[in-house]
Amino acid sequence: MACKFISNEDTNKWLEALAKDHVVFVPVEDGGSVTFRPFAEGRKPVLDRMPVRSPKEAVFPQTETLLTYKYEKDPENPERTAVSIKETLPRERAVVFGARPCGTRGMSVFDKVFDNDRIRDPYYATRRENTLYITLACDKVESTCFCHEVGSGPADTTCSDVLLTPVQGGFAAEAVTERGGKMLEASFFADGGDKCAEAEAVKKATREMLGEAHDYSDAPEKLMAAFDDDEFWEEQAAGCINCGACTYLCPTCYCFNITDEPTGTTGKRVRTWDTCMSFQYTLEGSGHNPRTVKASRLKNRVNHKFAYIPDTYDKHIGCCGCGRCIKSCPASVDIRAIVKAAQARSVKKESK
Ligand code: SF4
Ligand code: SF4
């Protein structure tokens, strides 16, 4: 990857230039936490810590209108009715700036689910095609980080177009895709020179801070072995209050609900995030609910990330190790600890 350099001052100018023909999502302080919001002059991006909210919102908004509709009836001829539907495909070009590699990697799960050989979600696919990811490599780690254990790392380039690494006075910038390479042709970038070696040292040092990686490769098998162990799952879910924070903040959680919102004879169809941690998520029209207890809902979330997605998508773990769910859980439920407990549980049983 060719390496360039951009100073801190020029980074702001670059953002201003990008914002002329893109919606540029940057991490900013908002409502007490760091979240992605459109860049505006004077709005300073927060780049010294990981955003609480995930960058998935740029391509998978919390709420989006899929279509609007109108029902018409001729009062002189009641049998003459018509329904018109208008699709509301997103058109704007966007840039996500300053997401961490784990957050951007979350898109790899979305890509597999929303845009594959069988299914192409036009809303997701259009946004994804029109969105560029400028990712920021980490130069420090938190106790909840475990990207290195799930096939990622603090300088992972999966789904990024450009990778920035913090160096003295600015950022070393590497193009990951052709689109990213075009971005680095802007006049704000200078030749990387010795900043590139500095960036490599930053990446190496951060990876070392994470230490050795736990091996999750047998997690799918071990979690399935624990599937019917209700006592195990009740113990893991004891503190959970089913608030759903873990799923809303997760860069790889993609569940949604669709509702029609009528106003007289017109209306709109809306897609909103849903959460498998809620009782209503699996409540069927008949009144039957296959997941009535929180233990079964937590089991589904953990198994989905560490067993079902790897089994379906060539061992790709459905968790990017960002630690958001651990940090924000009011009950401190730790997904790493649950998977490790399932792995240890099998070991214990096997040694009996
Ligand atoms: S954030 Fe914690 S308490 Fe809330 S649903 Fe998730 S695991 Fe349960
Ligand atoms: S499950 Fe937790 S640690 Fe894994 S990607 Fe989601 S929020 Fe991050």
From TrEMBL:
GO molecular function: iron-sulfur cluster binding; metal ion binding
Keywords: Iron, Iron-sulfur, Metal-binding
Tagged with keyword Iron-sulfur: yes
InterPro entries in the record: 4Fe4S_Fe-S-bd, 4Fe4S_Fe_S_CS
Keyword Iron-sulfur: yes
All residue ranges annotated as the 4Fe-4S ferredoxin-type domain in the record: 230-261, 309-338
Name of this protein: Hydrogenase
Organism field: Halodesulfovibrio spirochaetisodalis
